[in-house]
Every structure is written in structure tokens, then in C-alpha cells.
Design a protein that fits this description.
Helices cover about 45% and strands about 15% of the residues. The protein is an alpha/beta fold and about 250 residues long. It has one domain (about 5-250): TIM Barrel (Alpha-Beta Barrel). It has an eight-stranded parallel beta barrel, surrounded by six helices. Helix 1 (about 15-30) runs parallel beside helix 2 and helix 1 (about 15-30) runs parallel beside helix 11. Bound molecules: 2-phosphoglycolic acid (PGA).
């Protein structure tokens, strides 16, 4: 089953609107046309409009938000709805990132509500899962990942999985410079696919795109992407520089 590669830039709390415009100019010159991969950029909320303006109707590069509310509208000070993200030009939204889980107390139940709200508004969730080092060392890897997948995807119809991307990001590899080895990432992502097969059937699992994230760089992208169950990347630090993000994409084509 062939799955289209998807490479996403998670800028986290970096890149003002002006810096976003400065990034996009050289970056879009590197990718003026459709490529063999879907490319996604996730700026902070305040930079989304600027990014949308720079992208226009770009054939290869789509826009994502890094989070959203599960509520549709109303008295939720400081929150952003799925409809707002769609209106500003987002096609995707990152949900359940480990920083949201660990620093802002998001659990699988609220992440699940966000997945439902995103799909209802026509946004494609990039759903993040991943284990801590203690969990991996303590033999909890499979338990943790299967709980995260079952909880975050509760009530999701098999047909909706075509619009969901899974990002496997071992917490111990995020921003640490310590990447999972290609074998470790492959073994874990094959396990993730087996959980999806139990939940939604083998055909759906075989078609679902699973990204790897955690210290992906130009120098390790090619070896990671050659693994059969790695269908792309969610890139943090190395996506802040247009040249290094472009190199990661090129290494993955
Ligand atoms: P990193 O972040 O590439 O800086 O490790 C990845 C992520 O958190 O999505």
C-alpha cells in the first residue's frame, strides 16, 4: 500500500508574523510546484494569517495550527476554534502534542473531543502520541501507545481515518538531539500500525500515514524515511530554518 509522504514543520512558540514572511520567501522558491510529498507548516496562531497570505493556493505546502479548542464558540477566553482555523486557511491541526499533554495537562479524553471537532470542521488532525523514557524503560511502551490511540480515537469511524495523520514522537527524543534509531522507530511504528489494524481493520491501518518526530535533521531524515512504516516527519527545531527544512524534505522524496 503506497502512502504519500507528509512532512510537517512544528514551529512551536517561535516565528512572529514578520519572521514567518521572511522564512516563506526562500522556502517557497525551493518548492514552487507540487512535490511527491505533502508539506505542512504549523506556525503559532498569530502568524497563521501571514503564512496563509504567503502560501496563497500553493500546490504543495499546506497550513496547520498547533492546537485548538474542542468547543465550537462562546465564552472561552484565549481559545481558538476549528472554524476559525479553517477560515484563516488551515487544512491541518496538530493535536495532542507531548508539550500540550505534559505542560498543559491535556489527556486523551479532551484530545479525543478535539479530534472530533476538527474533523467536523473539515480540518485534518495530526494526532501525536509517544512514550516517556521511564515508560519505555519500564516496559510500558506498548501499553502507553495503545491507550493513547484508543483514547484519542474513541468514536472515530474507520472512514474518517483517511483524514487523520498519526505522529509518533518519543518524548525522550523531542528537542533533545537524541533521535530514535531507525530500527527503534520502525519497530514502534509497526506496532502503532498493528493497534490501528485492531481498531479499524488492516486496510485502514495500511492506508494511514504515520509520521516520526523527535530530533529529525537533514542528516538523519533519509535513513529514517527508508523504514517501511515511517511515512513522513513532524519536525521541530530543524524546521525553523528554511534551508534545513528544505533539506529534510529533499532527503525524504
Ligand atoms: P524536535 O521537535 O524536532 O525539535 O525534536 C519535534 C516535535 O516536538 O514535534
Amino acid at each position: 500500500m503506497s502512502r504519500k509522504t507528509i512532512i510537517a514543520a512544528n514551529w512551536k512558540m517561535n516565528m512572529t508574523p514578520s519572521e514567518t514572511a521572511v522564512f516563506l520567501e526562500p522556502f517557497l522558491q525551493s518548492f514552487p510546484e507540487a512535490t511527491a510529498a505533502d508539506i505542512v507548516i504549523a506556525p503559532p496562531f498569530v502568524s497563521l494569517a501571514k503564512a496563509a497570505e504567503g502560501l496563497g493556493a500553493h500546490p504543495a505546502v499546506a497550513l496547520a495550527a498547533q492546537n485548538m479548542s474542542h468547543e465550537a464558540s462562546g465564552a472561552f477566553t484565549g481559545e481558538t476554534s476549528a472554524a476559525m482555523l479553517g477560515d484563516v486557511g488551515c487544512a491541518y491541526v496538530i493535536l495532542g502534542h507531548s508539550e500540550r499533554r505534559s505542560l498543559y495537562g491535556e489527556g486523551d479524553s479532551v484530545i479525543n473531543q478535539k479530534v472530533h471537532a476538527a474533523l467536523a470542521a473539515g480540518l485534518k488532525p495530526i494526532l501525536c502520541i509517544g512514550e516517556s523514557l521511564e515508560e519505555r524503560d519500564g516496559g510500558q511502551l506498548e501499553f502507553v501507545l495503545s491507550q493513547q490511540l484508543e483514547g484519542s480515537l474513541a468514536g472515530i469511524a474507520a472512514a474518517a481515518m483517511a483524514d487523520i495523520v498519526i505522529a509518533y514522537e518519543p518524548v525522550w527524543a523531542i528537542g533533545t538531539g537524541r533521535t530514535a534509531s531507525p530500527e527503534q522507530a520502525q519497530e514502534t511504528q509497526a506496532y502503532v500500525r498493528s493497534v490501528l489494524a485492531n481498531l479499524f481493520g488492516g486496510k485502514v491501518a495500511g492506508a494511514t500515514r504515520i509520521q516520526y518526530g523527535g530530533s529529525v535533521k537533514p542528516g538523519n531524515a533519509a535513513e529514517l524515511i527508508s523504514q517501511p512504516d515511517i511515512d513522513g516527519f513532524l519536525v521541530g527545531g530543524a524546521s525553523l530554518d528554511p534551508t534545513s527544512f528544505a533539506e529534510i524534505i529533499r532527503a525524504s522524496l
